[in-house]
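Renewal narrative, Specific Aim 1. Our central claim is that a sequence can be written position by position from structural information alone. The example that follows is taken directly from our test logs and has not been curated for this report. It begins with the structure tokens describing the chain, in the order in which they were read.
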């Protein structure tokens, strides 16, 4: 599959088959996260991989996510960044961290498609509860989550704005 095909085949998956995602596939996905560009090459992003049913139950009990479908995904990934790894820990560092986590997760979801997996970005997350349940160090900031697994639903029609809505030559 070339990049255009991967991008065209990527969609938000909210229903997954029960099949687990193998450690081998997780490693392949995390390799593109490792290779993703980061501000000042800090490589401050980290993904917490939640496969355990018990951990998903604990997260649900703590109401980490308001949407139940998140807990039914075979894998939940929690993206964090450590802003203290940037030379100047300030508001710009926070912004760089958000960019680094976002870029690496974009690589991640594209690799997932190449491997036959689906994903969904999850912005509605209680970051404090996630950090507590997963025992995430205080230096790390929880940005968002992604679900990951084998899609149990076909991609529907994607309604996209026309190209001229996305850029302007000045």
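The sequence written for that structure reads:
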């Amino acid at each position: 599959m070339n990049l255009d095909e991967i991008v065209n085949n990527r969609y938000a998956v909210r229903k997954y088959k029960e099949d687990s995602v193998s450690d081998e596939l997780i490693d392949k996905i995390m390799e593109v996260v490792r290779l993703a560009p980061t501000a000042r090459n800090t490589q401050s992003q980290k993904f917490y991989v939640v496969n355990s049913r018990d951990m998903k139950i604990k997260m649900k009990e703590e109401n980490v996510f308001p949407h139940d479908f998140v807990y039914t995904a075979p894998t939940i990934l929690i993206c964090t960044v450590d802003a203290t790894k940037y030379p100047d820990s300030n508001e710009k560092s926070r912004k760089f961290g958000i960019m680094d986590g976002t870029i690496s997760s974009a690589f991640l979801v594209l690799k997932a498609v190449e491997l036959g997996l689906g994903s969904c970005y999850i912005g509605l997350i209680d970051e404090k509860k996630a950090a507590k349940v997963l025992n995430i160090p205080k230096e790390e900031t929880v940005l968002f989550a992604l679900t990951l697994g084998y899609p149990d639903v076909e991609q529907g029609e994607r309604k996209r704005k026309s190209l001229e809505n996305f850029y302007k030559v000045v």
